[in-house]
Design goal:
By secondary structure, the chain is α/β, with parallel strands linked by helices. The chain has helices spanning about 45-55, 70-80, 90-95, 105-125; strands spanning about 1-5, 5-15, 30-35, 40, 65, 80-85, 85-90, 100. α2 packs across α3 (about 90-95) and α2 (about 70-80) packs parallel to α4.
Amino acid sequence: VLRENNRLAGVVVNWTPVQALPRQITCVDPIALSCRWVIDATGHEASVCRSLEKRGLLKTRGEGGMWVTQSEDLLVEHTGVAHPGLIVAGMAVCTLYGLPRMGPTFGAMLLSGQRAAQVAIEQLKKER
């Protein structure tokens, strides 16, 4: 992750497809992507949240057991700003807040993504 002024300011990615390229061009450094808001929609892994946790900046609680009816509403309700510069969406929300898993239902995943986009737009407008 990239941090600037006590907030998340981007992510560092390893370009995995490089593994498939010829050896002569595979020595590529990680790529830094700067932005005003990061949306962690990395699923159960909650990769961005866990990167902040490794640095002592955020605490993830891990997913709870499966409880579809509770999880659907809770996931959408908790979608939003988790840390300055970070919006969390989808199953990353469950991992961060210790919410129950959803099981094989995806309605809340779509609504969570939509909510994350709305939050991002709201936050960007505030920064103008």
